[in-house]
Structure formats: structure tokens, C-alpha cells
Design a protein that fits this description.
Blueprint: E1 2-5, E2 13-14, H1 16-20, E3 26-28, E4 31-33, H2 43-47, H3 51-56, E5 65-68, H4 72-82, E6 88-91, H5 100-103, H6 107-116, E7 122-127, H7 136-141, E8 146-150, H8 159-165, H9 172-184, E9 188-193, H10 204-216, E10 219-224, H11 233-243, H12 247-255, H13 259-280, E11 286-290, H14 297-305, E12 310-312
Parallel strand pairs: 1-5, 3-6, 6-7, 7-8, 8-9, 9-10, 10-11, 11-12
Antiparallel strand pairs: 2-3, 4-5
Helix pairs in contact: 4-6, 10-13, 11-12, 13-14
Length: 323
């Protein structure tokens, strides 16, 4: 793993897009490239013009490297005191504050403590790393002001598949253990099932097990979404699965690189999630994040017929699928 240390300009930012997603009004990010290396990640597409990629001589769509800012804390401390209109801040939105390169500087814990030391702030933690468990002592102090979420992208029986496409993240089992422990300690939790990839986590049986897990850990909200087709993520995911011998899963992922197939997959996924949440949880707690620009007319109509739990994002005009 190549790690680049670069200074950013921001600490706590307003985040209108994540506010639309009902995730947070503010964000903290500790870098621009996450070391977990999730192949389907769309962050490269969102941040592709960021100058730090050029400064580091790295491809924003590449892997095997991370860009982290060890000085993030000083700006977060300043902003946590300076900002008068306070609210929910997400740690993090485009990278992960508990990746190995961030752990080297204890950025997740230090940023969390800096925000919560000031009244009026609440924090939504989102990570794929079980290392957040080491900060449960701090979370205990502020547990009424923290929502803890561990991104879970498949059921445990698919752990071998997930390890190929999320190579540096904690295992699905480890992530589930952390959320169960959070529940046992009385922490506030939420479920993040994003994305639910075709052939890996979109069947009715798999979704039922994930929603039942969300219920088990007392999730206050359930977030889910189809895979984002922007950028080369789907192609890279398909290739890695093929190279690792997961031909069936590779074919399923490859199929949704086609707009019509992605549209059908998305409509079916939403229907399956809604049905499962009706059975095992509370539909009012469901948040399906949906950019509809690549939906075909039939699937768009189908989803609008019953869009309980759907958060409509972006523009309604048609867009282009990633290649």
C-alpha cells in the first residue's frame, strides 16, 4: 500500500447531498483516497478532478494506494468550536476514518472526540473496519450523541467473495460482531447496506437475513442502495471476481453494466428490500438511496408506484452508465 500524506483545507463541511440522503448535515473526511480498496467504490468518480491525485501522481480510479491527511484534527477542532449552527456530522462520507493509514494517526478517535467535546454536535460514524471497537470507551461517554454504523455489503456466507472486492476492509463476520457488541452496550446503531451487489447480496434470502440482522442490532434506520454505475468500478469488480474464480458473481456484476439490466436489477432490489422491511422491521425507518437517471421508463414507473422508503436523488434526466 502506497500512502501519501497530503494536507486538505477543510475540517467540518456542510454536505447538502448527504443531507438529501438523510445521513448528515455536515461531513468530516480525513483524506481523498481510502486504503480499504473497495473495487466498486464511486468516490474516484466524484473526486476525480481533485488536485491531490495529480500531486501524488495517482489515478483517481486506481488502487493500491491511499491519500490521508494527518493534520485533519487541527481543522476539525477549530471548526467544532467556530460553527454556531450545529447538527449531525458524518465521519466520514467519501473515505473511512478507521482504515490502517488513518489508524496510524488515530484520526477516527481524535476527530470524534474533538467534535463531541463541543455541545450541540451529534456524530454518525460509518466505517468498514472493526478497529472502531477500540474506541467504544469514548463512544460510551457520548453514546446518546453518536450513531454507529458498520457498512455491511453481504451476508456472512459471501465473505470469501467480499474479501476479493473489499480487500483491506474487515471481514463481514468482524463487522457484525462489532455491531452486536454496540447493541449489547446500549449504543445507538443504524444499518448501512450499501451497495447490495447483483449475484452477491440481492436475493430475497440474503436481504431477509440482512434486514433481520438490522432488527437484531436495534438499527434506528436502514440505509440501502443499488451499486453506483459511475466510473470503472463495475468493470474492475467483475474482473477481480473472474480472476478469483467467482464466475457466477462476476457474470451478475457484469450484466448490470448494461443500462437495461441495471434498471431491472435496481427495481427488483428495491422491491425485495421493501418487502423484507415490511416483514421484519419498520418501513418508516427505511432509506433506499436512489439516483434514478439510468432507470428505464418501465422500472421508473414501477418504483414510483410504491416508493415507500425511497429517497430520490440527483436529476431526473437520463445519464450515462459507467464503462
Amino acid at each position: 500500500m502506497r500512502v501519501h500524506y497530503k494536507e486538505l483545507k477543510s475540517g467540518i463541511n456542510r454536505t447538502p447531498e448527504f443531507e438529501k440522503k438523510q445521513l448528515a448535515s455536515y461531513s468530516i473526511n480525513v483524506g481523498v483516497k481510502c486504503g480499504h480498496g473497495c473495487l466498486y467504490c464511486s468516490t474516484g468518480a466524484m473526486l476525480r478532478t481533485h488536485k491531490l491525485f495529480r500531486e501524488c501522481g495517482e489515478n483517481p480510479f486506481g488502487f493500491g494506494y491511499a491519500i490521508v491527511d494527518p493534520s485533519t484534527l487541527k481543522r476539525v477542532e477549530k471548526d467544532a468550536k467556530r460553527i454556531k449552527k450545529r447538527g449531525l456530522v458524518q465521519l466520514c462520507t467519501t473515505v473511512d476514518a478507521w482504515t490502517p493509514e488513518a489508524q496510524e494517526f488515530d484520526l477516527g478517535r481524535k476527530c470524534l472526540k474533538a467534535v463531541l467535546s463541543q455541545p450541540g454536535w451529534t456524530v454518525r460514524i460509518l466505517t468498514k473496519n472493526a478497529a472502531v471497537f477500540r474506541d467504544f470507551d469514548l463512544i460510551e461517554e457520548y453514546k446518546d450523541r453518536i450513531l454507529i454504523g458498520i457498512s455491511i455489503t453481504a451476508t456472512q456466507d459471501k465473505s470469501d467473495v467480499i474479501s476479493v472486492i473489499e480487500p483491506q476492509a474487515s471481514s463481514i463476520k468482524e463487522r457484525m460482531v462489532v455491531l452486536r457488541e454496540a447493541k449489547a452496550r446500549g449504543f445507538r446503531t443504524y444499518a448501512m447496506f450499501c451497495p447490495l451487489l447483483p449475484g452477491i447480496a440481492d436475493s430475497t434470502e440474503q436481504i431477509d437475513r440482512l434486514i433481520q440482522f438490522a432488527t437484531e442490532v436495534g438499527a434506528e434506520e436502514i440505509f440501502a442502495e443499488p451499486v453506483n454505475a459511475r466510473g470503472p468500478g463495475l468493470k474492475l469488480t467483475q474482473q477481480a471476481l473472474q480472476e478469483s474464480g467467482f464466475e457466477k458473481e462476476a457474470a451478475a456484476v457484469g450484466s448490470v453494466r448494461n443500462q437495461k439490466s441495471w434498471s431491472r436489477y435496481t427495481a427488483m432490489l428495491i422491491s425485495n428490500i421493501q418487502r423484507s422491511v415490511y416483514r421484519f422491521h419498520n418501513i418508516d425507518r427505511l432509506r433506499i438511496l436512489l439516483y434514478p437517471s439510468n432507470l428505464e421508463a418501465d422500472q421508473l414507473h414501477q418504483i414510483r408506484e410504491d416508493d415507500r422508503g425511497v429517497i430520490w436523488l440527483g436529476k431526473k434526466d437520463s445519464g450515462n452508465m459507467g464503462s
